[in-house]
Design a protein that fits this description.
Distance between the termini: 33 Å
Strand content: 5-15%
Number of strands: 10
Order of helices and strands: HEHHHHHHHEEHEHHHEHEEEHEHEHHH
Helix content: 40-55%
CATH superfamily of the domain at 157-339: Metal-dependent hydrolases
Structural class: alpha/beta
CATH class of the domain at 157-339: Alpha Beta
Bound molecules: D-glucuronic acid, zinc ion
CATH architecture of the domain at 157-339: Alpha-Beta Barrel
Number of helices: 18
CATH topology of the domain at 157-339: TIM Barrel
Shape: globular
Length: about 425
């Protein structure tokens, strides 16, 4: 087999990574079956969960955080921003971040990439032309189009037990599960571990006999609830996001919920548990979804968990840059731990580059380099476009070093690794 070297090597890697189908491990995307606020040929549902189109793209909370900075000089406050209609918010964001300023940030550049790859001119001064184009699309066709452009095969959802809107939809429609096999489900339940106090009245209102003390009876009831929702959703894994203060072992009700109800349920059904650690919610509550921040968390807690539950698969992403090295080293110690993604504030090319290099050097191909965390369908286009480029650059450099070390690099190798990193590792972890 031919040995590829020099510029040909970089090109071959870029091509293989660009073409490998993606299994996106974590998103907040939905299908039209969950309702959608807009689109040709559907009943509009203002509370629908499937977000897509230009107004949603522009009112992404990453961009809200940015417009609150740009607009502060002319008196824009979070209260004032949120008092506007969605259309007005999008108009304001377009004007402040794209017309009156150069869209230099990663989240802004993402909108430019997305519009361009949809065949639209990203240089419009108003949103009229974009709105007209999106209004002509049907949500189903748009899903097909976006998955095709982005090269994404599976879009793993986040199905949150504590989201009342989504919960009602699952209870009302048993067929939701069969809606679209490209969108696997995930059972998410942060509050069981992070906020037991407020979880109790919610669970009680749903008919579970739980108490603040988390009595043995309450543990059984949490188990019963998890069993019911696992049966209803058939999730590919269970998930939680946790604050930087989270510690394991712990003595509080949340820690007991984890060890006595959640992990036994995962064990029973062979479900991996994903932990997203390091988010401090609402550091600036007025900014709402744009008001969450990052804090360095405790990797030793992850190690303890992996040691105490050796048969449980853990998929872990951490939000702070400071935790990345220790997490990768910990994964060398525990084969039941797989690091995934460059989450949220880490989803920037410079940080993806650094983190992916570190992981590749420490773990070889045994990790999941990226997930998109998209909230709006079309974001798949830019998140994967930008991430693929960053991953290809890192992989290309690593092959060049391997070639220098004396190993001929072949197309077969490159394709195998690109496929593994973008798809295969997720598929095999979720089907084990
Ligand atoms: O799943 C999560 O907890 C986070 O990814 C989200 O809460 C966050 O707002 C998301 O949009 C970040 O990318
Ligand atoms: Zn997320």
């Amino acid at each position: 087999l031919p040995n590829i070297a020099g510029p040909d090597l970089a090109t071959a890697v870029e091509k293989a990574v660009a073409q490998a189908p993606v299994w996106d491990f974590h998103t907040h995307l939905y299908t039209p079956a969950f309702g959608t606020p807009m689109g040709r040929g559907v009943d509009h549902d203002p509370r629908g969960l499937m977000l897509w189109g230009i107004d949603e793209l522009l009112t992404y909370h990453y961009l809200i955080a940015e417009v609150l900075r740009e607009g502060a000089g002319e008196g824009l406050t979070p209260q004032r921003f949120y008092s506007l209609s969605k259309t007005e918010q999008a108009d304001l964001i377009w004007r402040k971040l794209f017309v009156e300023a150069t869209p230099l940030s990663e989240a802004c550049r993402g909108v430019v990439t997305t519009l361009t790859r949809l065949g639209l001119d990203p240089g419009e001064t108003t949103l009229d032309a974009y709105r007209k184009w999106f209004a002509e699309q049907s949500p189903d066709e748009q899903i097909d189009r976006v998955l095709e452009i982005a090269g994404v095969e599976k879009v793993t959802m986040t199905n949150d037990l504590f989201d009342g809107n989504e919960r009602e939809r699952w209870l009302a429609d048993a067929d939701l599960l069969r809606a679209d096999s490209r969108f696997p489900t995930v059972l998410r339940f942060d509050a069981l571990v992070t906020d037991w106090e407020h979880a109790v009245p919610r669970l009680q209102s749903w008919g579970y006999e739980v108490d603040q003390e988390l009595s043995p009876r309450a543990i059984d009831e949490v188990r019963r609830m998890l069993e019911e929702w696992i049966a209803r959703l058939r999730p590919v894994y269970c998930a939680m996001s946790l604050p930087p203060t989270w510690r394991f072992p712990g003595a509080d009700e949340g820690a007991r919920c984890l060890t006595d109800a959640i992990l036994p349920a995962c064990g029973e059904h062979g479900l991996p548990l994903a932990l997203m650690i390091g988010v401090t919610r609402q550091i600036n509550p007025e900014a709402k979804l744009a008001g969450d921040t990052v804090g360095a968390a405790d990797v030793a807690s992850v190690a303890h968990l992996c040691r105490e539950f050796p048969h449980q698969r853990f998929l872990v992403t951490m939000l702070s840059r400071e935790n990345q090295h220790e997490l990768a080293v910990t994964a060398r110690k525990f084969a039941n731990l797989t690091p995934f993604g460059c989450w949220w504030f880490l989803n920037n090319p410079s940080l993806i580059d650094e983190i992916t290099r570190m992981r590749l050097e420490l773990l070889g191909p045994t990790f999941i380099p990226q997930h998109s965390d998209c909230r709006v369908l079309e974001q798949l286009i830019y998140k994967w476009d930008h991430s693929r480029r960053a991953i290809a650059a890192v992989l290309g450099d690593q092959y060049a070093k391997l070639a220098d070390a004396g190993l001929p690099i072949t197309d077969r190798m490159i394709e195998r690794d690109a496929h593994r990193l973008l798809h295969g590792n997720v598929a095999s972890l979720l089907s084990r």
